[in-house]
Amino acid sequence: MTAPFQLTACLLRLALAGLVFVWWRPCEGNASNNKTVCVLYEASPNISCLLEGYDRNFRPNFGKEALVINMSMTVASIDSVSEVDLDYTITILLRQFWKDQRLAYRGMNRSLSLDGRLVEALWVPDTFLLNSKEAFLHKVTVDNRLIRLFPDGELIYGMRITSVLACKMDLRKYPLDEQTCTLELESYGYTKEDLIFTWKDGNKSIHNLDKIDLSQFSLGDHNTMTSESVYETGVYPRLILSFKLHRNVFFFLLQTYVPSILLVISSWVSFWINHEAVPARVALGITTVLTMTTFITSARASLPRISYIKAVDVYLVMCFVFVFAALLEYAFVNFESTTSKHRARKRLRARKNKNKKQEEVKVLDEAKPLKGPLKAAVMESKIDDESPTSPGLGSTASSTRRRERQTTFFDVASNVVSNLREKRAAFKVEIKDINVIDKYSRIIFPLSFVLFNIFYWITYTF
């Protein structure tokens, strides 16, 4: 063999040996733990070595102690809070931390930020939102996922999630209320014997929550808790984030309370209108009543159909009572005015009849001076029966006794009716000046409304 061919063969052997060395060097045996540790280089990291022999169907530390999952989150936004559906919409950046020794590597001292699509090849916790009604993972422009791998096998898995979460609200003090809503994280398939959920830094694990601005609420304190869920299939780890929502009342003052107060005050204007102006007072009363009915209907339309009474219901119903009471006050005034006029006409007519009867009796006495029982019988007969005829002197004794008996019967009946009328009049208060009712109403209605407002705001504010 010539020298050039020998040189070429030698170079081929060296190249083949180099390829074999490069091929086997990334995966070296680790005698300390009998586990292959991948070696990555800055110039050309090859993650295929990391996934060689990796089985994503088994959790890290399978068959050993439970795997600890640390969590933290950043609240990107709270978009809406619905009292009708008893839920709120939130967008979070959820981050989960755990260690997977199968993904440990050496040769590089910095972390690797991997493509989010690689999550399909790795084991990740089966975390879900327990009180979620609906949720989705953001996918614009790609799936919003973060995977960061550290040399010791530490993993950070982040996701951007928007979810509609149920919130148990107590609306008895609405709109002067404050609510406590929760966000609950739980493992779907792994029990606490396999996974342990913890907050990474306690309350400090929640970021950006104090910077969220809401239209109708201001955010209060938040608290993180660790809990467990017990089902028939086992005990599962759970993490809870709770935060307070303080409702801003100013919007409801302008939309509901101030218009209601003005309507009640408007109903009092009728107290200064003459009670004889029936169309004006009736129109004002009916208009305010119908407007308050509209207010109550619109307020209840924006709330769930719950069985208990809310603070706004109490206020609107009491305003409706005051407005309706003003309308009833005029009904009473009008009734008393009509009754008073009727009584005045009745008294005038009775006075005229009495004067007429007295004149007739006086004429009879002057024309026929009779004596004894016969005179009394004739007078009573004249007054009660208004009969123009009188018995002559030649009447028989039996007719005279019959007239005496008839006169006695009418006397008794008249006395009984008079006594009943007197007793009824004793319990009846006759109002001489109808305008007095309106004068008292001008004081009683505003004073009662002020006392009600004081009691209402003290009760529902503190």
TrEMBL record:
The keyword Cell membrane applies. GO terms for cellular component: apical plasma membrane; chloride channel complex; postsynaptic membrane. Residues 388-399 have a biased composition (Polar residues). The keyword Transport applies. Residues 49-248 form the Neurotransmitter-gated ion-channel ligand-binding domain. InterPro entries: GABAA/Glycine_rcpt (IPR006028), GABAAb_rcpt (IPR002289), Neur_chan_lig-bd (IPR006202), Neur_chan_lig-bd_sf (IPR036734), Neur_channel (IPR006201), Neuro-gated_channel_TM_sf (IPR036719), Neuro_actylchol_rec (IPR038050), Neurotrans-gated_channel_TM (IPR006029). It catalyses: chloride(in) = chloride(out). The chain crosses the membrane at residues 249-271, 283-303, 315-335, 440-458. Its main location: membrane. It is found in: Apical cell membrane; Postsynaptic cell membrane. It is a multi-pass membrane protein. Keywords: Cell membrane, Chloride, Chloride channel, Disulfide bond, Glycoprotein, Ion channel, Ion transport, Ligand-gated ion channel, Membrane, Postsynaptic cell membrane, Receptor, Signal, Synapse, Transmembrane, Transmembrane helix, Transport. Residues 1-29 form the signal peptide. Pi subunit of the heteropentameric ligand-gated chloride channel gated by gamma-aminobutyric acid (GABA). GABA-gated chloride channels, also named GABA(A) receptors (GABAAR), consist of five subunits arranged around a central pore and contain GABA active binding site(s) located at the alpha and beta subunit interfaces. When activated by GABA, GABAARs selectively allow the flow of chloride anions across the cell membrane down their electrochemical gradient. Pi-containing GABAARs are mostly located in peripheral tissues. PANTHER family: NEUROTRANSMITTER GATED ION CHANNEL. Heteropentamer, formed by a combination of alpha (GABRA1-6), beta (GABRB1-3), gamma (GABRG1-3), delta (GABRD), epsilon (GABRE), rho (GABRR1-3), pi (GABRP) and theta (GABRQ) chains, each subunit exhibiting distinct physiological and pharmacological properties. Belongs to the ligand-gated ion channel (TC 1.A.9) family. Gamma-aminobutyric acid receptor (TC 1.A.9.5) subfamily. GABRP sub-subfamily. This is Gamma-aminobutyric acid receptor subunit pi. It comes from Branchiostoma belcheri. The gene is LOC109477163.
